[in-house]
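Good morning,

Both structures are done.
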Amino acid sequence: MPRTSLSAPLSLKGVVIRDGCVLLLLNERGEWDLPGGRPNPGEDRRAALVREVGEETGLAVDAGELLDDHLFEVLPQRFVRIAAYRCVLAGTAGVVLSDEHLECRWVPAADLADMVAGHPLPAGYLRAIRSAFA
C-alpha cells in the first residue's frame, strides 16, 4: 500500500530553463531527473532547492513558483513526494555535475516527448516542465 503524500519523504526539484531548453540529469537508475533534493529539517523549501541545485550542478538559481506536486514511486513500494519549482538562472556559469548524476543535457522543449538516448523521463517531471513552458 503506498504511503500518503503527507508521510512520504519530500524531494524538491528545479525546472531550470535556458534558451528554450530544460536541464535534465541522468541518474543511476537510468532515468532523466531534475536537479534538487531533500530539505534539511526546518529549512525553507525555496532556499533548500537553491542549495540543492547548486550542489548538484554548480548553477546559481532563484526558485520561483510551485509547478507540480505528486507522489513518485522511486522503487517498488518506495514513494517520494516531489515538489517541482520553476528556477531562473541567476548567473552565467556552466554546469559542473556532481557525482550524484552520470550526465546532463539541456533539452529543447520540443524534444521532451521523444526523450534523449532512450532513457525515461518520469511523467510528473514532464508535467512540471510543460507547465513551466506554458
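Second structure follows.
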Amino acid sequence: MDFLELAKSRCTTRGFTDERIGKADLERILAAGRVAPTACNRQPQRIIVVQNPENLLRVQKAYRTFGSRCVLILCQDKTDPLVRPFDGKCSGDLDIGIVCDHMMLAARELNIGSVMVGLFDPKIIRDEFNIPETIEPTALLLLGYPADGFLSPDRHKTERKPLEETVLYESYGHPGTSPGLHGMAQR
C-alpha cells in the first residue's frame, strides 16, 4: 500500500483483543521509532515496553489501557534538550510525537492497532516505573489487535476538514489562495 493509503488506514483503537504482539512485529515497530527524525538528531526518546500483566495494571493507575497487552511509555531525556532560544520551547514533545507517529504507522502496516495518549498522570508513571527526574514521561502508546477491526479509510472524506480550511499560503490571512490547492483537494 502506498503511504497515503497507509496513513488513511491508521485509526485510533480503543479496544483490543487478548492476542499478544509477536516479538518480530514489536521489534519492527520499535525500529520504526528508532529511525524517526528528531531535532538535531538528539534522539531524546526513551521507551519502556510494558507487557507483563502486573505492570500493565500499574499503567492503568495513570490511564486506562483499553485491554492493550502492550503499552509503550515514551519518555524524553531532558539532560540535553534542544531549546528554541527565542521563547524557550523545547523540541522534545515534537520529537516524541514524530517517534509515535512512525511507530503507529508501522503498527498499522502490520494490522496492529494503536492509540497515542498524552492525557495521563505522569507522576504515577514516574513513580510506578522508577523513572529518574531527568527523564520525562511524555506519551503512552497502546498497541494491540483491534477488537472491532479498523475504521474505513474513507472516513476522512467527512471527518476531516478540507485543505482549504487548514492550509494557508504565504500569510495567516490567506487561506487556500494557491491556484493549485483546489485541484489538489479534489484528487
